Amino acid sequence: MAHDDLRSIAEYVMPSFPARASDLGFLFGTRHGVPEFCAAAHRLWLDGMFTRLLVSGGRTRSSSLAEADVIAERLVGLGIPDSVLILETEATNTGENVQFGRARVAEVMDAAAIRSVVVIGKICSTRRYLMTLQRH
């Protein structure tokens, strides 16, 4: 496969968008790369890219703790106040992250007022995040 073909595939699967200040940050749960995701979320918060951060992720087979709880503990340790975080601890996949996350956000803030979201997650899942956000 030619280099240009690989680049085209990568650009489709992993589209890149410039970060801009948004109404909400959305960190998709993970059990791999937690320190890196938390560092990225912390940096974005310090840069004023969001004032509230939804962290969505339930328990996995490898842990009795929800991904959101593990991530939240690390974020608080980095200096993000608890009051910034909105935790959703039941989701087990990307679709549930969005579905359950939206419901959780609606419990604590006016979800209709959210016009833009900074998404924090695995770069290889970018297209899946975008497609799932559009469906819900």
From TrEMBL:
Residues in the signal sequence: none
InterPro entries linked to this entry: Cell_Envelope_Assoc, DUF218, Rossmann-like_a/b/a_fold
Membrane-spanning ranges: none
Gene3D superfamilies referenced in this protein's UniProt entry, alphabetically: HUPs
A UniProt-annotated Pfam family: DUF218
Domain DUF218: 39-135
The protein's name in its UniProt record: YdcF family protein
